[in-house]
Design a protein that fits this description.
By secondary structure, this protein is α+β, with helices and mostly antiparallel strands. It is built from five helices and eleven strands; from the N terminus they run αββαβααββββββαββ. It folds into two domains: 129 residues, PH-domain like (Roll); 47 residues. A four-stranded antiparallel β-sheet has the order 3-4-5-6. A three-stranded antiparallel β-sheet has the order 7-8-9, with helices on one face. A two-stranded antiparallel sheet has the order 1-2. Strand 8 and strand 9 form a beta hairpin. Helix 3 runs antiparallel to helix 4. The longest helix is centred in the middle third of the chain and has 29 residues. The radius of gyration is 22 Å and the shape is elongated. The N and C termini lie far apart (51 Å).
Length: 229
């Protein structure tokens, strides 16, 4: 397990269902003529808040081990039992939170919104939402907007079930939601047959204000085509 994680960090590769190279997922999602508008990862603090309980339990188990050592408990048995408890009840939750932060991302293209959810080595969920099915996009702050991330709220049209998808810990959520909203408007106006003929897209000339994440997080794709009405 630790060997797999070590190579996953150093080398983009596929480990069972976990795809560590985002370019492969992008190629899988993009069709002919489709272009990337925005790609962003989740904030690094999403890992911290998702694993805060496990961090406290780890500190507790470590302190318990020190206490048992102090009173003269057999260290071989004590260490083995405590490590067994930590590995099977805490480690996997920490690994899940780490994978969620490190390899989940939001991809916006000229045709759809793709939500990539990879929570373990054996589960991967790629949810493409076509822009024509999106009713509205909203943003909401989290933790008084102290850390520069928030929620992006996606409302589907009633014909698609009217479901609401909330994405938390999105860096610069207001800018991301605005970019998605303008992309949806552009698509529905020029592509979906409800407006004038779609203009020819020029090469990417403007940059999205790329959400800032921790320095050890994967890079995002900041480039986007101009969205004009």
């Amino acid at each position: 397990m630790f060997v797999f994680l070590y190579f996953a960090i150093l080398l983009p590769m596929r480990i069972l269902a976990l795809e560590t190279n985002p370019e492969n997922i992008k190629k899988q999602c993009l069709s002919s003529g489709e272009e990337v508008v925005l790609m962003t990862y989740y904030h690094a603090l999403s890992f911290f808040f998702a694993s805060i309980r496990e961090i406290f339990f780890t500190i507790f188990i470590f302190g318990l081990g020190i206490g048992l050592w102090y009173i003269g408990a057999p260290m071989l048995w004590t260490t083995g039992i405590l490590f067994f408890m930590w590995f099977f009840f805490i480690f996997f939750n920490i690994m899940k939170a780490w994978i969620d932060w490190r390899y989940d991302f939001i991809l916006v293209t000229t045709d759809k919104l793709v939500l990539v959810d990879q929570t373990s080595l054996i589960r991967q969920k790629i949810n493409p939402i076509h822009l024509e099915n999106i009713g509205s996009i909203a943003s909401e702050t989290q933790y008084w907007n102290l850390f520069g991330f928030g929620k992006v709220i996606i409302n589907l049209k009633e014909g698609e079930g009217g479901n609401v998808t909330t994405l938390k810990f999105v860096p610069n959520a207001d800018q991301v939601s605005a970019k998605i909203s303008s992309t949806v408007t552009y698509y529905q106006r020029y592509v979906d047959g409800n407006g004038p003929t779609r203009p020819i897209l020029t090469p990417y000339q403007e940059s999205v204000a790329t959400p800032q994440v921790a320095s050890d997080s994967p890079p995002s794709a900041p480039q986007s085509p101009p969205l004009s009405s």
